[in-house]
Write a structure and sequence with these properties.
2 copies of one chain form a homodimer. With about 375 residues, chain A is of the alpha/beta class. Chain A has a single domain, classed as 3-Layer(aba) Sandwich (Peroxisomal Thiolase, Chain A, domain 1). Chain A is built from 13 helices and 11 strands. In chain A, helix 1 packs across helix 3 and helix 4 packs across helix 13. The radius of gyration of chain A is 19 Å and the shape is globular. Chain A starts with a strand and ends with a strand. The model of chain A has no long low-confidence stretch (mean pLDDT about 95). Chains A and B meet through helix 3, strand 3, helix 4, strand 8 and helix 10 of A and helix 3, strand 3, helix 4, strand 8 and helix 10 of B.
């Protein structure tokens, strides 16, 4: 495949918006195109992530809608839905389109709007990413999914609730350094521990919020990127899946799809976890089971061994599900360009983006690097 | 890009089923894999089309679910939703993945279940493929969309209701030759003309039914296809978009996205409309405005100049929207292999697949040929 580079990125502020998901995407896309110095008419394809548009906005077929709002109605569009990994999957397929030589300039993005419905409704719609026959019927929703996984990790490795709280504290601190984050306030381990239980052992401050938002990334071929100082190269982009049903998984404390996707991404990029300077999610970076210790000791904080989610992550930056993957790519690109301001990871040259969808059934991992 | 071939196809009977869309897809996929002589464990990726699963089955994240049901939970999956063109778009992206050299064996398919909800509900959910802000609020549903388009064609070209009825009559005749078609009975122009109005000028017998069903296609690289007598080659696969809003389109009697996608597909394949022996939808095959005459004179019937939809088409075969694109590919492959039995188009060597999504805002066109 040909080499592919990111030339521009854009994100909206995450939080509550009184605009459609397509309009939020378009705001981010205008920013990304300007950042790339690419005219809208140069865009040859749009890969678009959106998850619950059918449920919260009565809107399917969001690809051509997003393109129309942006003013490029003629480009082929593809809406991709792989739960929370949707716009990371969109990114991966756009890399393939350019890599295959089909196009030279591809726009990737996503948009999501959920704060126009009640929390009960969005909790139900998000649960559609679990199995309707065997899981939703039991009352399982996503806080429950991740509570089961957290409990398995605690049981197997001795991870503590305080260690998990340290992840939220770290992410809230990072969020204070990100003007586009949904939450921009510090919290303490004690506050997390005292917050109401959502799904034992997860408490309110452990969980990510519901968010509206949009994100976009401009991808180009090597010919176009050459000589552009701010171009960030896609070293690899991989995906893996796993059993849809939680009940089919052998060990809830691990995420086999992450392990497989990461292995493929490292292999394709010709590097390993030791080369990663900044990540949006930790994986292969610490030994299995030591993530709790890593968070507690500050190894994943800004200034630590491998800063994870300097943006504030889904926890504090927010999580507009269809836009999250593209927003993660945008953060890592910003870090690798050295343009992250107060949340800059010093000397970052290689970054990893990891996005998990649904019951850990879809995972995308991409590696990015500066020349 | 590397050359890509279809090695196997499978479809369920279309109609009412008491199974989930994922199960319907899996039935078709088992048939397609057996047809290809490919083991499930050889599949490296799944591209999956599903449209209203969130609405009719409370099921999103249908990619890994479909893979799990089929027993290949580890392969990367991508759910694509471009309204009625979803699994044709899935096909196109799978061609790109193999063309780029990323994979050698890719499964494409789709599944849809809508007959578990009322006609009123499915009519509403299908309307989500039009714009929620500017079109759904006016009460526009898809029979209305196509009624407006039909009226524009009648006004501009003098196309008559009887000519349009001839399309339905032709498709019902073809459907009687297809054991998997939802409708297997002949109808007459008089019956169409007397059937109740759905959206003037379209009557009940002009319109396609709601359908449950699944379809699957196995794609492989040239190395694997070489020497396989029943392999059918993908000559090209293209897509185009158009304005989301009907009100933004300049001339409803034409479909610019079809014209652009077809031009790209012919260009990439190095051929033209004159080379097409069998098609799932007519385009570029007759002069603009003469489609009505072509249907009336039988030019698009089996035995005519260019048989269109020998399967019975969406009208008689049925239209499980997420599965339709893959099912169209399956029909053309079957025709090009000379295995279509009583509905065989004699001597078919080149076939065209055309799928339209939503308010004519997404169109995919692929050309297939035998060696």
């Amino acid at each position: 495949m040909r080499r592919v580079a990111v030339l521009g990125v854009g994100v909206t502020k995450f939080g509550k918006h009184d605009r459609t998901s397509g309009e939020l995407f378009a705001e981010a896309a205008v920013e990304a195109l300007a950042d790339a110095g690419i005219e809208p008419r140069q865009v040859q394809a749009l890969y678009y992530g959106n998850v619950v548009g059918g449920e919260t906005e009565k809107q399917l077929h969001t690809g051509p809608q997003a393109a129309s709002i942006l003013g490029i109605p003629g480009v082929p569009t593809t809406r991709i839905e792989t739960a929370c990994a949707s716009s990371h999957a969109a990114f991966r397929h756009a890399v393939m389109e350019i890599g295959a030589g089909v196009s030279d300039v591809v726009l990737v993005g996503g948009g999501e709007r959920v704060l126009n419905v009640t929390t009960e409704e969005s909790t139900e719609y998000f649960a559609y990413a679990s199995d309707a026959t065997w899981e939703q019927t039991l009352g399982l929703t996503f806080p429950g999914v991740f509570a089961l996984i957290a409990r398995a990790h605690m049981t197997k490795y001795g991870t503590t609730e305080e260690q998990m709280a340290a992840v939220a504290v770290k992410n809230h601190h990072h969020g204070t350094l990100n003007p586009k984050a949904q939450f921009q306030k510090e919290i303490t381990v004690e506050q997390v521990m005292r917050s109401p239980k959502v799904a034992d052992p997860l408490k309110l401050y452990d969980c990510c919020p519901f968010s509206d938002g949009g994100a976009a990334v401009v991808l180009v071929s090597e010919d176009i990127a050459r000589g552009r100082r701010r171009a960030i190269w896609v070293l690899s982009s991989a995906a893996a899946s796993d059993f849809m049903l939680l009940g089919d998984k052998r060990d809830l404390s691990r995420v086999p799809a992450t392990e497989r996707a990461a292995a493929a991404a490292y292999r394709d990029a010709g590097c390993g976890p030791e080369d990663v300077d900044v990540a949006t999610e930790g994986l292969g970076l610490f030994e299995a089971g030591t993530g709790g210790v890593a968070a507690e000791k500050g190894w994943t904080s800004l200034g630590g061994k491998v800063p994870v989610n300097p943006s504030g992550g889904l926890k504090a930056k927010g999580h507009p599900i269809g836009a999250t993957g593209a927003a993660q790519v945008a953060e890592i690109v910003t870090q690798l360009r050295g343009e992250a301001g107060p949340r800059q990871v010093d000397g970052a040259r290689t970054g990893l983006v990891h996005t998990l969808g649904g019951n850990t059934a879809t995972v995308c991992v991409s590696l990015l690097g500066r020349e």
